[in-house]
Amino acid sequence: MGGDHMNRVAIVSLSVCLLLGCSQDEGASLTDPDVYRVDIRWTDYGIPHIDAADWASLGYGLAYATAQDAICVLAEEIVTVRGERARYFGAHSDGIDNIANDVFQRAIIDQDVVAHHRAGAPPEVAAMNRGYRDGYNRWLEDHGHHLPARCAGEPWVRPMTDEDVTRMGIWVGIRYGLGRAAEPIVNAEPAAASRAEPASAGAVVFLGDMPDHAELGSNAYAIGSELTANERGLLLGNPHYPWRGSSRFHMKHLRIPGELDVMGVGLYTTNAVAIGFTRHVAWTHTVSTALRFTLYRLELDPDDSTRYRHGEDIRNMTSRDVEVPVLSPDGELLPERRTIWFSHHGPVLASSELPWSSEHAFALRDVNLRNNRAGEQYLRFWRARSVEDMRDALQAVQGVSWTNTVAADRRGGALYADITVVPNVDRTLIEDCGVTLDNAGPWSRAVTLDGSRPECAWREAPDAAQAGILPPEELPYLITQRYVSNSNDSHWLSSPKAPLEGYSPIIGDERAQRSLRTRAGLVFLEEVLYEDRRFTPEIVQDILFEHRNFGASLLLDDLLELCKDLDGTPARACEVLAGWDRRHALDSRGAHVWTEFWRHAGRMENPWVVGFDPADPVATPAGLRVQDVEVRAGLTDALTRAVETLDEAEIALDAPLGEIQYVMRNGEKIGIPGGEGWAGAFSMIVTRLQPGEGYTPVTHGNSYIQVVTWDDSGAPDARAILTYSQSEEPDSPHYADQTRLYSEGKWLRLPFTDAQIEQARTLRQVTLEAPRR
Fold this sequence. Notes:
Strand content: 15-25%
CATH topology of the domain at 547-682: Penicillin amidase (Acylase) alpha subunit, N-terminal domain
Number of strands: 32
Shape: globular
Radius of gyration: 27 Å
Oligomer: single chain
Structural class: alpha+beta
Largest sheet: 10 strands, mixed
């Protein structure tokens, strides 16, 4: 996997042909149902262009190309979804309760669920899945003797099965819904009949450890023909995903002659382009505010806490015993047994916030466990020719698990849609059946329904794609020739001129204050229009890569008025902030001071001169009431605490951001621009402050960024960057190459057409041919 190997194009092509037996008559195998046939060409920065004879061959080549960059991540994810983490990594590793994971994977994603998901795959997707399995295993056969250092020689790197492919897809769909409750489900124990206190008060709430929709989020613009210079659609996709692990993106270009031509990214562990573009449409996703589950509070039999009332009936919970092997510190495999409890609503969970007492327990019902339509959904995206086609695909399939879709097309249309899988729980049902919980902590936003009343079940809609989910006509979307924007607030203000209202609260709030990041995205668009300019790709690129802080633009001048009266510790922060350029660029001095200040000031209640006004939601709230005694005291305290935090961490207040916010790549320090969205940054980077070191590593934030329109010939004009590069492995030549580009503010022009690919530098090219298994 070294750099010399990657550049020996002719030698590698010949070697693979010798290994796999390439056909002398290239056309002979293109339609052979017994043979995989695929060509892969890697262009600059390790982007694979995969040309396949058919869908199975496409999956074969995609797995081969992905394994090249992510074999260790893929192998570990297989261990995760098989429920074998504790066998290989012990009870805990990397902050994960491996026993809880293993029990959850085995008890919740059972064979019935796996079979249901397999049955939902269209023939093209099923073929692609089979090819993916064999392509991964082919790569292991060819390169298993020379794995990256992180997983070389490890017993957990094993061949992939059909079930592994299915389970990885299921896990992606539920990991931010039902998956957040893994530990409370696994740790739930019935209360003894003689006591009312919770049986599992100490259970860890996994939900609270996960990034919420505002952190694991995204920015997106789709701009239509009325506002673009070329009168075609223009898309910004800017997901904020993790910088390590199985939720990293991988760039790819998938082609089947006459059938498919799509480029973009998918997660390492999915065999799809989930965000990308074709000759007709470009789309991206942002994490939606809609809930994917509800809680049900069960009214228990006072004599038996595993029995609960449902209407006039008393029902028995069911249970499932799961035993998993756990690697001890001594190297022995020891059995660990857990019992998982179920009501008819779903699995029972318990935590300190949701105790299982002798009176009540809580069950969780999730929508995505039975959502087997994601493969069909993306297949229809790849074939869409307009944003209307995208909307129709969303409404017909309802297969997107937990993200908004924002899209633009070559004709000049723009689409926002939260047409996702959402429990069919309307406002009336919440009002009639909602249960108010005290001290719910991280569960406070969840909808909790009365599980003892049959009428509190999710509604059924005949035209919904799945039992118990909202039908498509009750889900928000907007098609326009102007613009739509989303930065992880709800559907309501995706276009300020056409707010979307009247939808179920379970989808998201309406006529409520928007985040600073949402407002930043809208203000930056409107600034361009105010200057009477039409949007170009360069303008959209600059909006993101200027790394401006909208919160500072809105509020810093007021704060500096207060600063005139301050001395001592808070005055030190004021001095730096007065000279700050209000950006999160590498040479910005003071960005981190603002972040630490707003970490505290942002929690103040009503510091505003002008409060939120739903009639003016982009401009309000605004201004700091620096003449108010309590507000002055709160802001002064926030400045003081910011200085103290940075002093304790030994970080200079006037340090350039690029020196203190960075990642390390094989001993090389690479400065990373961007800031925290909650502090007003639009270009989002989330880090950890390490004393004596700075803000490192990056945990998530700007990941795959694409700006896409179409040129006069109708071909995509795509500029993109994968901020953390194609591979997570330090011994890969594509471990840091795009990261350096991102640090320098540069973009790639993605080669899409045959001519562009021919003009691009080829790093490596292989032809794979093998019998199907």
